[in-house]
Each structure stands twice: as structure tokens, then as C-alpha cells.
Amino acid sequence: MLAEIAIASSLAALSSELLHRAMIPRYVKRGLLSEDVHKPGRPKVPEPLGPAVYLPFLISSLLFYTLTGEIAAIAVASSSGLAFLIGLLDDISPLGPKTKPLLLILPAIVLIAVYQITPRPYLPIVGRARLYYVYWLIMLAIFTVFSNAVNMMDSLNGMMPLSIYASTIPLIPALISLGRLDALASLLILHSSLLPYCIRNKYPAKVFGGDSNSLFVGSALASISVISNTEAIFGIALIPFLVSGFSIIASVGGFKERRQIERRPVILNDGMIRANPDPKAPISLIAIITSEKWKGEADIVREAATLSLISGILASLTFFLLTPH
Amino acid sequence: MDRGTILSLYTVISGWLLIIMALFLTKLILSSDQEGFLISALYVFIGLAALISALSLWYMSVRELFLRVKLNGPGGT
């Protein structure tokens, strides 16, 4: 199956690169641009490039299914496809702060419909649990939490894709040791689809993915973790994402649209970023990183990616050393 | 390495410890021999209550440290 994974991943990277090249000039021509608010002069960059990441993922997943007959790739592509569409809707016309998390439960239902899920997650310390009653509720929560957490992490140039690579690459040995090559294939196809975007989104960004990209990536990770029963391990790997999302929600007192948040978590000064000195300002991962001194965008992203790498390694060690299987 | 970086590292490591502690608690609860839907629902409720309490304590500690670092930092570019 490794040859099929390599072929599908190569197709994902190649088609994503071609789509980026084709779409960026069209976006510029049609004025589909957004301001990069953290830079002096607020330069405008094409957004949303989510379709240039999701469509290659879908095509490559279909190819992988054709080559191997593994339904898991189709299940991941279809459930995360719904998250992509919700994100695209949000990019076109912003959804309410409470509507979006609720809608992001729907991809979980698609996965339940398409794939025969075994409600027996591998839990550190506990071992392989039997959660036949409560698993389905937890699964709905996993989808909306992962998708929103990845979405909230997509705030600085290259922060989301680099952190995704850093947190999920250390999980590859865990998926191999479980023999879940179908889940591994989806993860590697996702990595490959993201690569051309990551190159263009890193500081200084030439493209933005939009919610269509971040919600798709979060939902794809949730699907991969569910089909491989590694929800807890993925959860540990995504701790920086969850910390960021939870801190914002807790400090602003619930789900709120960006416009509804009176005080910004950070302040800007000539391209430098620092935590807002107002004690009532919301807490975010970026605010925590810049709580003591001003930092450049690239430095903050590097620190966030390093934190994600630490989480990814911690998750892998937790799986191999603390998870009975 | 400044205090902001150390604090962000603390949030990740303490978050991990929180998950492990919650699972350890779950393991203790699951070691009981009682079975049945109501019993398991009660266990899940207790487990969630413990997790939410621990999460609240964790958030309060992060917030306290964050405010301390933020308000006492050197400032300036």
C-alpha cells in the first residue's frame, strides 16, 4: 500500500501546486483580496485559497480509493468536504459565532454515514476503551473542537500549516504501529495538499486560505483520528491549538464573532506584536507568547510551530509509553 | 528564552498533564466492577465534572501567570 500512498500524495502536491498557480492570478484579477492586518501598510493578498487545498485532497483520495479499495480515504474526504463547504460559505458571507460551531457537527454525521466507526478509542493510561453509548456525543464534540481550534490558530502568516506539520508528523509512527495505513494515507495526502499553500502562506504571506481551508484541515484531522481510534493522541498533539481556542472562548465569555470582541488580544506597532496591556483583553496563544516583549510575526510563528512539535512528540511518546495496546 | 515563551511552554505541558490526570482518574473509576448504562452514565458525568473542574483551575493558573508576566514585562520594542 505504500506505493499507492506515495502516488496519491504526489498527485495531491502536484495538483495543489497547479491549482495555486492557476487560481492566484484569477483572484488578483477579480479583486478577491484581503488585508494582511499585521503588516505595516496592510498589503492585500488573495483569499480564500481553500479550494486549491481541498480539491487536490479530494482528487487524490479518490485515486487512492481506486487503487486500493480503502473506503477510509473517501470517508475522510467526504466529511471534511462538508467542513470545506461550511468554511467557503463563511468566507463568502460570515456565519454567526454560534452557528458555525453547530454546523461543524455535520461532518461527523457524514463520517458516521459513510464509514463503519468502531467506538473504541485508544486512551492513554486506560487502554482501548469501550464507549458504545457516549462515544457518539464525544465524536460530535471532537469535530467542532478540532475544526474551530485549527481555525483560530490560522491568524498569522504560516502559523496554521507549519503548526499542523509540526504536531502531526510525529504521529506517523503511531499510525504505522497500529497498522492504520488508510488513516496514514489520508494524513499524508493532507500534508501534500497543504505543501504548496504552506510555501506561499509562510511569512511574508502571498496567499490566505480562509475558513474554507482551516475548517477543512481541522475536520480532516478529526476524521483521521476517529477512523484510526487515536482521538486522544491527536488531541494531545493539537494542545497548542486547543489552548489557543479555549483561552479565547473562556476569556471573552463564550462564542463571539471577531467584531463583537471589544478588546483585541494583541496590539501592533510597525510590524511588531505584543499582548494587549489591558488586563481585560482576551487571552490567546499569540498573546501568551508575546506577554513579556514585542516580537516579530515570523518569530511568533516559529515559537508556535516549536510548541506544536513538542506537543506532537509528547503525543507520540504518550502513545508508545503510556497507552496500553 | 523569555518569560512569554516559558509561559506558553507551561500551558502546553500543564495541558498534557491535565489530560493524563483526567485519564488516570477515569482508569480508577473504570476499575470498579459495576456495570450498566446508568452506572456508566454516572461515571461519565463524574469524569466530565472532574475534567471541567481541572480545566477551570488550569485556566485560572494560566490567566494569573499571563497577567503577571504581561503587566510586569519590560515593554518597548
Radius of gyration of chain B (Å): 18 Å
User: Per the principal axes of the C-alpha atoms, what is the gross shape of chain B?
Assistant: elongated
| Count of spatially separate domains of chain B | 1
Global mean pLDDT of chain A: 92
- Which percent range describes the beta-strand content of chain A? 5-15%
Strand order of the largest sheet of chain A: 5-6-7
Global structural class of chain A: mainly alpha
Biggest sheet of chain A, open or closed, and with what strands and sense?
3 strands, antiparallel
Order of helices and strands of chain A: HEEHHHHEEHHHHHHHEEHEH
Largest sheet of chain B: none
Query: Low-confidence stretches of chain B at least 5 residues in length (pLDDT < 50)?
Result: none
SSE run of chain B? HH
Strand content of chain B: under 5%
**Biggest contact:** A-B, 42 and 37 residues
Q: How many domain units of chain A?
A: 1
Structural category of chain B: mainly alpha
Give the proportion of residues in helices of chain B.
Answer: over 70%
* Multimerization state: heterodimer
Number of strands of chain A: 7
Shape of chain A: globular
In a few lines, what is going on in this structure?
Chain A is mainly α. Chain A has helices at residues 2-30, 51-68, 71-92, 99-103, 106-114, 135-153, 159-168, 172-177, 181-201, 211-227, 231-237, 239-252, 285-289, 297-322; strands at 33-35, 44-46, 122-123, 127-128, 266-269, 272-275, 295-296. Chain A has one domain.
How are the elements arranged and paired?
The complex is a heterodimer of chains A (325) and B (77).
Chain A: H1 2-30, E1 33-35, E2 44-46, H2 51-68, H3 71-92, H4 99-103, H5 106-114, E3 122-123, E4 127-128, H6 135-153, H7 159-168, H8 172-177, H9 181-201, H10 211-227, H11 231-237, H12 239-252, E5 266-269, E6 272-275, H13 285-289, E7 295-296, H14 297-322
Antiparallel strand pairs in A: 1-2, 3-4, 5-6, 6-7
Helix pairs in contact in A: 1-2, 1-9, 2-3, 2-9, 3-5, 3-9, 3-10, 6-10, 6-12, 7-9, 7-14, 9-10, 10-11, 11-14
Chain B: H1 3-30, H2 37-72
Helix pairs in contact in B: 1-2
